[in-house]
Amino acid sequence: MPRHKGDHEARRRDVSAAVWRVLAAHGFGGLTLRAVATEMGATTGLLTHYFPSKKDLVAHALTLLDEHRTATRKAGPEPGGLGALRATLLDILPSTPQAAADNRIWVSSWDAALADPDLAAGHAARYARSRERIRHHVREAQRLGELPSADADDLAASVLSFTLGLVVQALFSPQEFPPERQVRLLDGHLATLAAPAGGLPNGLR
Amino acid sequence: MPRHKGDHEARRRDVSAAVWRVLAAHGFGGLTLRAVATEMGATTGLLTHYFPSKKDLVAHALTLLDEHRTATRKAGPEPGGLGALRATLLDILPSTPQAAADNRIWVSSWDAALADPDLAAGHAARYARSRERIRHHVREAQRLGELPSADADDLAASVLSFTLGLVVQALFSPQEFPPERQVRLLDGHLATLAAPAGGLPNGLR
After folding, report:
1. Per the CB < 8 Å rule, is A111 touching B115?
2. For domain B73-205, is the CATH number 1.10.357.10?
3. Do the Cβ atoms of A103 and A94 come closer than 8 Å?
4. d(CA B178, CA B153)
5. How does pLDDT run across B170-182, given as a tens digit for each residue?
6. Residue B204 pLDDT level (bands cut at 50, 70, 90)
7. Closest approach of chain A CAs to the CA of B3, in angstroms?
8. How is chain A split into domains, by residue range?
9. Bigger pLDDT: A9 or B75?
10. What architecture does CATH give domain A1-57?
11. CB-count exposure of residue A156 (10 Å: 0-12, 13-18, 19+)
12. Which of B20, B115, B119, B134 could form a disulfide with B156 if both were Cys (CB 3.0 to 4.6 A apart)?
């Protein structure tokens, strides 16, 4: 029954949009069935038809975040190697108001995710994929001679560590970490990794 | 009236212990006046005498976390410079079950803190103090010639970024980030920063 199915999909999109607005306004701590129902002008009962529990709602919200991040990722021709690595990391940093708002939701999801094994597994898989993408760029940079040869897994984990921790600090102290300082710190970090033989690391000169 | 004051203090300690147990079991997402009251075998009404609102409760929990972290910080004679920096960062990493449990609570507090300007300001001040402590060790390491001269503020922010991001990844993927790998990544990061002139950074050899 296509028509019925179309209605169902349309309603799901309405629900998704309402979930997104609640997250943007209140973070995961404010994400409740009631809040989403109110946002939609619907009853909690209708909402439980789509999401039987709070956990289903949170899982859906995490999927929305994933889709949003993929959709907003800068497209265009990526240079290979270190340039692509830099672009990937810049894309994560909260260096625009929109990126800050997205990161705020993302960081606030860690509480809900850590409290539930299934959600935690989903997050673990997400970060594993991020490391894989980063590792790909690291290997290409090594092939091009832009990064010294070293364990690419460890390098990818280190680079993602640096980036996630910078996100957290910048969210709490935006005035201490304006966009230009975020970029400077990232470039300093990459220059340190790329330090040519025979001199001090660029980022430390 | 000392006796009354003593009772009040004793009760506050009971409440604090109950808050701690709720956090350890359910994270900040599970921290409600009702959960703490149940944990104490008390009424929500009694609890609101100490904490009029959920926000007061969360603020108290963050203070408890601070006290706990200060109390569990390894004492003993710290070597100056790079050794002290390494010890400070090792102290943060979730490299023991207890440190993992503490970090889990800490990371889960970010959701509540980001949703409230006052709590966010408290967290911003906490991380500023962390950077100050790290910067002190960085400066000492620079004085000793263990780290190249560079902007100590930026170095401290970078080192804390790396550490916080490693905490997050290790919490979600403990099997990929066992304690020995956490230490190896940290040592690799420090070796990169300390890279001597005339060779590749140690962490990248």
Report:
1. no
2. yes
3. yes
4. 30
5. 999 999 999 999 9
6. very low
7. 40
8. 1-57, 73-204
9. A9
10. Orthogonal Bundle (1.10)
11. buried
12. B134
